[in-house]
Design brief:
Length: 302
């Protein structure tokens, strides 16, 4: 089966109106991306950390909508241009997408990856390269976290370099559950995986089952349902700088004295403000690690 894909170039203020029109016209999926000339990548707008409850957009946006192949493209375009003029639709073109084996397509980009000396993340279609390693079975899915992002990689490398036997841990902002699963496979005694997104909790549960994680060792909860009998040895939070700053005092209450707090999802220029906040909250900063433009900060609870 093939599909029709329609691309529209527009300005930020018209994006939602055009997207609503395309959805009502039968669009199966609609995506937005920055509109930038190939020769002008130096002027791309980076939107790393939007405010809560906001949907930031670039000044110029490319809208891509997918329709069934049977869609009458000429009639669709005629109605589109009757509704919106050339000041709104800056350019347009359509193409036919040939159906393909998507499972094989993503495998071209997602292959087994090693973090540190012993942790491997392997898609289910591949055999683990090192049978005796700490192998995590994980496929791209509902939630963030496969190891391909530098901040996730920084956290996995930290876990690989520390003894976790009999340690208790919180994975705050668990996403796919990759860090919780890695910790348990590295010997952690108990892990609580926390995320405000129900899809992330579902993904964590599915990935834990795929990796044969005992249910009694992994508790998966929303932030509002966190209940601890005692503080944990390690807290990992791979989220974003602003929520990390807002949660600093709360995180200190969750970690034992001399326990570790590992923070990621921080851009290099945000490092100082995160470190200052966590130092004031009761953590001694003992490590800062870099990968591309991303940073992880390690604190010891005082």
């Amino acid at each position: 089966m093939s599909y029709l894909q329609l691309h529209l170039n527009t300005l930020r203020e018209h994006t939602e109106a055009l997207s609503d029109f395309l959805e009502n016209a039968g669009g199966l999926s609609i995506t937005w991306q920055e509109l930038v000339e190939r020769s002008d990548y130096s002027n791309r707008q980076s939107i790393y950390e939007p405010p809560l409850d906001s949907t930031p957009l670039w000044q110029q946006v490319k809208i891509s909508a997918v329709f069934t192949e049977q869609t009458a493209v000429s009639a669709l375009m005629e109605t589109l241009y009757q509704t919106f003029d050339e000041k709104i639709i800056l350019a347009s073109h359509s193409e036919i997408l040939i159906d393909q084996a998507w499972e094989r397509a993503w495998l071209e980009d997602f292959k087994p990856m090693c973090f540190g000396k012993r942790i491997w993340v392997c898609p289910s279609a591949y055999e683990p390269p090192v049978k005796t390693a700490v192998n995590i079975r994980l496929d791209p899915g509902l939630a963030f976290g496969t190891g391909t992002h530098p901040s996730t990689a920084l956290c996995l490398e930290w876990l690989d370099g520390h003894l976790l036997q009999e340690k208790t841990m919180i994975d705050y902002g668990c996403g796919s559950g990759i860090l919780a699963i890695a910790a348990l496979k590295c010997g952690a005694k108990q892990v609580m995986a926390i995320d405000h997104d129900p899809q992330a909790l579902t993904a964590t549960l599915m990935n834990a089952e795929q990796n044969n994680i005992p249910t009694e060792k992994l508790k998966i909860v929303l932030p509002t349902n966190v209940q601890l009998q005692e503080p944990v040895d390690i807290l990992l939070a791979n989220i974003l700088a602003q929520p990390l700053i807002e949660l600093a005092i709360y995180f200190r209450s969750l970690v034992k004295t001399n326990g570790y707090c590992v923070l990621a999802g921080i851009l290099s220029e945000q490092t100082d403000s995160v470190c200052q906040t966590y130092n004031a909250a009761g953590f001694k900063i003992i490590g800062i690690h870099h990968k591309k433009e991303w940073v992880s900060v390690v604190g010891s609870a005082m």
